[in-house]
Amino acid sequence: MTTTPVGIHDLSFATTHYALDHAVLAERLGVDRDKFYLGIGQERMSVAAADEDIVTIAAAAAQPILQRHGTDNIRTVLLATETGVDQSKAAALYLHSLIGLPNAARVVELKQACYGGTAGLAFAAGLIARDPSQRVLVIAADIAKYELDTPGEPTQGAAAVAMLVTADPAILALDPISGLYSADIMDFWRPNYRSEAIVDGKTSVNAYQKAAQEAWSDYRRQGGRELGEFAAFCYHQPFTKMAYKAHRHLLESQGHTAEAADLEAAIGATTTYNRTVGNSYTASLYLGLASLLDHADDLTGKALAMISYGSGSVAEFFSGTVRPGYRAHLRTEANQAAISSREMLDYDHYRALHEAVLPTDGAYHAMPEETRRPFRLGAMSGHKRIYEAR
Ligand code: HMG
């Protein structure tokens, strides 16, 4: 029986107005900048302006998709985040007025740490298998924030990735097989009363590697491809070195040697964007995919491995095949412009943004005008977020 392929038809990325160079942070923390540039593989990180949040970057990521494809038959919108702005209302509902989402749609927010975007993709594929005429907009949007002057601080970042998931996709057809692993572990979490995550860094690194390996074992048990069949391995990247560590661990667990050149060939092209954007939690894996598609030689017909990890924890190993003609559908120029157009912060400005807290008194508060991105948080009033297009 042949079935219509389902997968990623379009992918669009947005990030914040500001960025901080890791050299600035290294100087402040009194460490060698190469600990960040080489040791964790991060050079810069995106930082949200006072008038940005996950809604503004999600809208900026999703708008180009609606402009290119319209809204017909988008009957489901799934927004994955762990930086939610409300405990009740789904963040994507704000997108109706900002970018014109259709009303004849179910709109839901998903959460499981950095894994949420992958859950969205899997749910979307299921809905489209049920009715191939439908299209699903999946958005992953996050702002990663750790306490100042802690080991987690250099692994902050922010981005949103929007994906249109359809039958007969133009970019990546998803294989129906997935490997899964979940376990109750306290490696990283953020209680409702905190704006910054709590993390046990070393435990999280080990938990990620174990979960990726277990998900791979399950993928094989389900009849998935062999390691040698993949042209590239796209990992969740809390920092880019993590992808190399996890891939080395996976190869060695399967009795393979992991030479530096082999690791670079498997991972290198997936890290270009994450190296300068930082951890974008749910979006990070899909930013890795964008980086791979934008920077690798022709991948037509090649199989890609996708490895998703969300602390707490859930991991999924899945795969897809790159579609003929995919290059005509990429947004390489816009992706690069989103990164190169960021304004660089000095340390004091970065610290002030980090320490700022949103008003909670319900009065009217206009937000400082900072971002030059398409959407901004204009004000807080009556406990409501008032968004505007610029
Ligand atoms: P640390 O303990 O400060 O760093 O923080 P370190 O001392 O381990 O050094 C890092 C690396 O830099 C080491 O290399 C050093 O040798 C090297 P490694 O041994 O790892 O290969 N180094 C240098 N290299 C070159 N020149 C130098 C130099 N100095 C040192 N001069 C840690 C590291 C990752 C623990 C910290 O950044 C952290 O806590 N980050 C947050 C947690 C995290 O990102 N965990 C990743 C796995 S969990 C995950 O991915 C889920 C997550 O995204 C959340 C979610 O799911 O929602 C986080």
TrEMBL record:
InterPro entries: HMG_CoA_synt_C_dom (IPR013746), HMG_CoA_synth_N (IPR013528), HMG_CoA_synthase_prok (IPR011554), Thiolase-like (IPR016039). The keyword RNA-binding does not apply. It holds the Pfam family HMG_CoA_synt_C. Residues 176-251, 266-326 form the Hydroxymethylglutaryl-coenzyme A synthase C-terminal domain. It comes from the Bacteria. Keywords: Transferase. Residues 6-168 form the Hydroxymethylglutaryl-coenzyme A synthase N-terminal domain. CDD domains: init_cond_enzymes (cd00827). Transmembrane segments: none annotated. Signal peptide: none annotated. Belongs to the thiolase-like superfamily. HMG-CoA synthase family. PANTHER family: 3-HYDROXY-3-METHYLGLUTARYL COENZYME A SYNTHASE, HYDROXYMETHYLGLUTARYL-COA SYNTHASE. This is Hydroxymethylglutaryl-CoA synthase.
